[in-house]
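Hello Y.,

Per our agreement to keep a running log of every chain we model this quarter, I'm adding this entry. I've kept the format consistent with earlier entries: sequence first, then predicted structure.
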Amino acid sequence: MTVFLSDQLFQITFLKKPLTFTSMITEINIQQYLELSARIPLIDVRSPSEFEKGHIPGAFNIPLFSNEERTKVGTVFTQESKEKAITLAYEFVTPKLDSFIQRSGEIAKDKSAVIHCWRGGMRSHAFAEHLESNGFSELFFIAGGYKAFRNYVMNAYNEEVRLNILGGYTGSGKTQILKQLKEDGLQVIDLENIANHKGSVFGGIGNSPQPGVEQFENNLYWQWKEMDLSKPVWLEDESLNIGHVQIPKMLYQKMNEAVVFFLDIPKEERANFLVSDYSVCEKSQLASAIQIIKKRIGDLNTRKSLEWIECGNYYEVAMTVLSYYDKSYLQVLEGRDQKMVFPIKLCNTNHKENAKIIMEFAEANDQRQLTNDL
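Predicted structure for the entry above:
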């Protein structure tokens, strides 16, 4: 209902006349916007709370209403009348008209901009006309708005793609290997980096807050669209959930059907890797994470682990935790088609050496597959 009021308000406040579409304002679809995105800034006119929940990466928010104003207008509409709601909305927006132009000018210095709202309705149309009447020369609005973008994002993983999944027990240094593979020219998407989480109960320690589920999906797609799907894309083997965000189900299904290069590294080496990674963290954070998996590792191991954390014996903590995580991951791995799982025995967690070995192994596997196809 608030969207409807916003649309009407823009027409009344900005135009005081029916909307008209001039040659300087062009309607475009999401695919056309993506082609323009590197050149022309995007202005999102939705409320701050809508924007925070999820937005197109790189967009600038110039909200018609604040969150509080949007709530008040909606309340007046439902409890009193549409006319009173529009009058209140007019009072909220009128003082902002000049600021809309000023802020838009700061964002789009060459007077070119793409505008969108929730569904590509009158809000984005009228905002574009307001900019045009104040000197903007090249303006676009997105048909279907943010809703159309979301539909595009959720359908992005329907295309055929060859995924290479980097698997391995906890502490194998998979993230560092993926970074090295990327430096070596391969196509890599680091899901944990996008999620701001390493996947386990310890995964949030030392990271910035996670994005919301919707924004994670948007940010993931923004990297996915840069991939050449005629070539392999490397991803780390993950659970459906990474912290509180979730991999899109279509992509997750493809990951589960893909080839897995499983890193088999001695437990002691992986424990040392975890010590180097987590020993700088706050002891209280590590202790809280141990408490979360208390039922899985047992009372005795929990008590010992907490004592080891307190005295700084992180190696023993890592060995205890790995016993649990190794067993859990092996159960998941055994659920895959074993013809698609390729173990790679490695001596240590040296990511540069291991990345080279993995690339050679993957290339050899490609040749075997090509021979079989012939």
